[in-house]
Amino acid sequence: MTIKLPILLIIPHGGYGIPEEFTGYYSLTPSELFFESDGGADKIFNFREKVNSIVNTEISRLFVDMDRNYKDVYPVTKDGVIKKSTSMNRPVFMGKYYPDEIAISNILKRYYYPFHQNIKKAIEDRPSLIIECHTHMPVGPANAPDRGMPRPLVITGYTADNREELA
C-alpha cells in the first residue's frame, strides 16, 4: 500500500467545459474557453497517486467560477461566479442573454455547491496542507487589475485559520 501525503489540492479553474444548460447561449470558441482556463493546471498538479485528495472541475470558470462567492453575480459585480465577459472583454453569452435568478440557482446547485462540498469533505480528513492550484497568463489581461504588467513565474501565499471549529 502506498502512503499518501496529507495534502488537499484544489484546482478551481482547470476546466473548460460548458454546462449543458448553456448550450446554444454562449458565444465563445473552444480555443477561447481553453485560453480563459488555468491551462494545464489539471495536468501539472495531478498528484492523485501521491496526495489524499484532489478537488477539481471540468466546467469553465466563465460559467461557474469556483473561486468566487456564490452571491457575486452580475450586475453586483462584473467578475462574479458567472461571468458576463472574458478576461479579454469578449462577451461570454450571445446577445443580451445572461442567466436569470432561477437559472443561476440551478447552475449553482448542480456545479458550485458540489465542488465546495467535496472540499469540505476532504477537509474532514484533516489534511496538513491545502494547496489551491492555478496557472496564469504571463501578462495581466485586459480586464485584470494588473493589465499589461508582467506576472511572476511562481506566486505563493499563506493563510492560517485558527478558528476553534477546525481544531
What is the rounded distance between the termini? 29 Å
For the biggest sheet, the summary is: 3 strands, parallel
H/E element sequence: EHHEHE
Classify the beta-strand content into a percent band: 5-15%
The portion of residues assigned to helices is 10-25%
Q: Trace the largest sheet across and list its strands.
A: 2-1-3
The pLDDT mean sits at 90
Low-confidence spans: none
Structural class: alpha/beta
Number of helices: 3
Anisotropy-based shape: globular
Number of strands: 3
Radius of gyration: 17 Å
What's a concise summary of this model?
This protein has helices at residues 30-36, 41-44, 101-123; strands spanning 5-11, 51-56, 129-132. With 167 residues, the chain is an alpha/beta fold.
Description:
The chain is an alpha/beta fold. The protein is 20% helix and 10% strand. Strands 2-1-3 form a three-stranded parallel beta sheet, with helices on one face. The radius of gyration is 17 Å and the shape is globular.
Keywords:
single chain, 167 residues, alpha/beta, 3-stranded parallel β-sheet, 3 helices, 20% helix
Question: Which helices and strands appear, and what pairs or packs with what?
Answer:
Blueprint: E1 5-11, H1 30-36, H2 41-44, E2 51-56, H3 101-123, E3 129-132
Parallel strand pairs: 1-2, 1-3
